[in-house]
Write a sequence for this structure.
């Protein structure tokens, strides 16, 4: 599932059948991340269904963003699959915004550098 900027989106299901509408929903939501950050290489979304009797049906969405620099991971749980995907994309978006903000602050605050040699005074 490549978009125009050679971004890669991988959607997989664990104990869950991926319908075409669910794949389309994930792709539409993930486009928001690609629009905000152009340096994303790949996004992998794993949707897992846990059908234990004590909990009921729980959906877990895991996201992994491969980006230039350290990769980013997030996991959310919800009672509904589409809601889990929405929560995951929101969480990844907040993580990308925080990363961008930290890089901008770091860029605007240069560190002092100490020189070993004395600087000659001008006459």
């Amino acid at each position: 599932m490549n978009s125009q900027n050679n971004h890669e989106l991988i959607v997989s299901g664990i104990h869950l059948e991926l319908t075409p509408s669910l794949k389309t929903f994930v792709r539409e939501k993930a486009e928001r991340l690609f629009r905000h950050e152009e340096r994303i290489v790949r996004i992998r979304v794993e949707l897992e269904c846990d059908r234990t009797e004590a909990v009921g049906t729980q959906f877990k969405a895991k996201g992994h963003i491969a980006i230039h620099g350290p990769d980013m991971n997030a996991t959310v749980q919800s009672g509904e699959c589409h809601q889990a995907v929405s929560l995951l994309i929101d969480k990844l978006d907040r993580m990308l915004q925080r990363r961008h903000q930290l890089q901008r602050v770091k860029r605007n605050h240069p560190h002092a550098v100490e020189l070993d040699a004395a600087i000659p005074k001008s006459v």
